[in-house]
Structure formats: C-alpha cells, structure tokens
Amino acid sequence: MVYKIDYLDGDVLRWSVTETGVECEVDESYTPTIYVSVHGDGDFSTARAALRDHPAVVRVAVVDERVSFRHDSEQVLRVDVTDLKAVNSVAGMVSKWGSSGEYRCYNVDFSREFRYCLEEGIDPLPTHELSEVQIFVSETELASERVTELTIDDKVVTGSGEDVLTTLSDRVESVDPDVLFLNTSDLIPVLFQQADRLDVEFQLG
Predict the structure, then answer these.
(1) Are 99 and 41 a contacting pair, CB within 8 Å?
(2) How far is 148 from 190, CA to CA, in rounded Å?
(3) 56-88: buried (b, 16+ CB within 10 Å) or exposed (e) per residue?
(4) Kindly report the CA angle at 140 between 189 and 158, in degrees rounded to 5?
(5) Is 102 exposed, middle or buried (0-12, 13-18, 19+ CB in 10 A)?
(6) 1, 114, 117, 186: most buried, per Cβ within 10 A?
(7) pTM listed for this prediction
(8) Within 10 Å of residue 95's Cβ, how many Cβ atoms?
(9) Do strands 21-27 and 179-182 pair parallel, antiparallel, or not at all (unpaired)?
C-alpha cells in the first residue's frame, strides 16, 4: 500500500506499508503528463511536430479528453515529459506560441504528490491505521547541535545528550512505528551526529 510520495534529485520515491514494515522504491519509469489543445489559427500538426522534437518530451500522442467538466471530449495532444521540471518548461514554451489562447495547456499546476497518484491510479489512503511516533525539538536545541530536551509524543524528555538518545531509541524500538512525525527533518542528522560524538549506539527503526 503506497501512502507517501517523495521527490529527491529528480527521482520519485514510493513509500509503502508492507506486512513486515515500510519499504521505499524508486519509480524510474514515471513520466509526468500534460495536455495541449489547439484553437483558432493554431496548427495541430505543427504543435505535434514541435513537441515531438523537444528534448524534454518522451512521447506525444493524439487522444480524446475532456478539458473541463463543461466540455465534451475533444482531440488534444498528450505530452509525456522526462521529469517534473520539464512540466513547467514545456508548458511555458507552448504558452508562447501563436496569439493568446491558440495553444492551451492542462495538468500543469498539480501538486507533485497529487499528480503522481492521479496519473498512476494510486489511492494513498491507508487501509488500516498507521502506528506513529511524534518527535518535537525546539529551535534552540537544534541550533546548539546538542539535544538535551525532546518531546516524544506527549512526553517531555530531558537529560544528558546520551540519556535523550537512549530514551528516544528505546521508544521507537518499543512502538516500531510505521511513520515518524518530526517538526523538522534537520533533527535526524543532528541526532546521529550526537550519537557519533558520544559513541552511543542509536537507531530510529
């Protein structure tokens, strides 16, 4: 069951809950899609040829789609592009063609996660309740890079750097959560650096 989509260096990461825990896989085959409709004095064949020759375009096909709920299906160009950055660059190029409204783009402004789920037919809603551990750290503690106080779920944990690491590691091990909620991802490297500095064995699942 896919429950989270991330993007890193242009890659799509699919996080899934399995019977044994959580797995992450890279979807190397994903190509985002936009659609282009042609109106007025615009030329369908010219647009298709120009898009087909664009280096950021993987494939171009003629399909029938509804461009809005109030319209019947019409012939448009389906344009699969190399990655998410190419969505805006290709759409920006098309928007400059001809006079205003001759070439119109669709599926451009979706959020990355929604786009992926929509195009891949994925429902990211959990089929069961996910276990979780929430971790909160103050900006002051984080800036000092010496964490001696954390909030784990609703419990404030204070003590030496070693005590905090041990308590947090024990909590994560006992709950074995599907998801860690943090108020900042910067906490992760700080905790592991602190563990190395203090020569403490530390794990977050």
Answers:
(1) yes
(2) 12
(3) ebeebeeeeeeeeeeeeeeebbbbbbbbbebbe
(4) 80
(5) middle
(6) 117
(7) 0.64
(8) 16
(9) unpaired
